[in-house]
Amino acid sequence: MAQLDPVIIKRRRIGALAVLALLITLIWGIPQLFANQGQVVENPLPVESEEAIPAEITDCAPGVVSLKAMIGKVDAGAEPETLNSFASDTTPHLWYEVTNTGLVDCRFNVGTRVTFFTITSGEQTFYSSRDCNRADATDMTVLLQSNTPLTSEPAAWDKVYSSSEGCSAAAGLPEVPTGGATYRLKAEVNGVISEDIRFILN
């Protein structure tokens, strides 16, 4: 039996190794692909430009969008946690959940230009984001899928009064009363207004 050329033997060995490497990659990669399907997207409110929304999708009809005001705390690396009572060293964060309760998907503006938070106690308004500097407020149209809630990014509230000079402690604004004071939060997005939710500042 004739002996094979060493060059041919080398080529066959390289080919066999390449096939083996491909098989190992497929065996390891397929389970990883399915495992990644359940990962949570970090940004809870997908940003979709108007160009990304199909042309046949129309604006949400009046009355089909519901809005829920949310307040809680946000720890680094953790999901926002809703609270109704805050310790003196805890900074409340405000956000909302918006839901299309209709039967078909629709477009809805959730931009900062049409989004407002109001905090009251009794008849007095202590904080209204309408008072803040809104020079950079913009529109943002998103696709609201039927009965699929979308949650906005939480925004910190420094427990200070609102003002056109700024709405943070860095602006030197006075703090609102604490020590067990009770407040109510209301959200408004594109004309849709949430119910009040009650919370306490200790």
Describe this structure in words.
The strands form 3 sheets. Strands 3, 6, 7, 11, 12 and 13 form a 6-stranded mixed sheet that branches. This protein has one helix at 6-35; strands at 65-73, 81-82, 85-86, 93-100, 106-109, 115-121, 124-128, 141-144, 150-151, 155-156, 181-189, 192-193, 197-201. It is an alpha+beta fold. It is 15% helix and 30% strand. The chain folds into 2 domains: 6-38; 50-201, Intracellular proteinase inhibitor BsuPI (Immunoglobulin-like, Sandwich). Residues 19-50 have low confidence and may be disordered. The radius of gyration is 27 Å and the shape is globular.
List the helices and strands and how they pair.
Elements: H1 6-35, E1 65-73, E2 81-82, E3 85-86, E4 93-100, E5 106-109, E6 115-121, E7 124-128, E8 141-144, E9 150-151, E10 155-156, E11 181-189, E12 192-193, E13 197-201
Parallel strand pairs: 3-13
Antiparallel strand pairs: 1-2, 1-4, 4-9, 4-10, 5-8, 6-7, 6-11, 11-12, 11-13
